[in-house]
Amino acid sequence: VADTGDLPIGEFTAQPVLTARQHIVVRAGHPVLADPSPQALAALEWLLTGPRDGLVSSRLRAMFARAGVTPPERVLVCDTLAALSLLRNSDVGGIVPAPLLTEPEGRGLVALDLPGLDPGELRLVLLTRPDVPLTPAGAFFARCLVESSQSAQPPA
What digits encode the pLDDT tens for the residues 63-81? Predict the structure, then answer.
């Protein structure tokens, strides 16, 4: 899962799997690409993924506030596949983890790197319950996740 900082303390053991940079994205050919600015991006409707608990949109508001811009007023939270499809086919803005931009699902999206607008990193963690042992298959899958993410990380 994505670690959004809202995991209950003590209920799960969280093992870090991957940390990825995130990018603000729009579709290729989006009108905002002619003159990208924090103000122009704030005027867009935004698509975000995550829980519908207000934390996701509060991070978006904080990102724009740090840039000194009034945050977007229209924010839709939906599942990842729907968000990617809508990002590719409409004039909305969104935030996407860098690794996803290299996958087929990221085709047609353009990353914008604007000073002052930093969506931060996405931290993925493997959650397990301390009182419930993983099955052998689950333990193998967990090991594969961790090892594959370690081999994909650049050396420190």
Answer: 999 999 999 989 988 888 8
> Token digits for 37?
């600015």
How far is it, in rounded angstroms, from Cα 76 to Cα 49?
8
How far is Cα of residue 102 from the mean position of the Cα atoms in its chain? 14
**How far apart (Å, rounded) are the C-alpha atoms in residues 131 and 33?**
51
Cα 21 to Cα 33: distance, rounded to the nearest angstrom:
21
Q: Which residue has the tokens 């298959």?
A: 137
The structure tokens 């690409």 sit at: 33
- The pair of structure tokens assigned to 130 is 């301390």
Check: CB of residue 13 under 8 Å from CB of residue 127.
yes
Distance CA 103, CA 75 (A): 25
Of 122, 105, 129, the C-alpha closest to 12 is 129
H or E element, residue 141: helix 136-152
Q: What pLDDT score does 124 carry?
A: 78
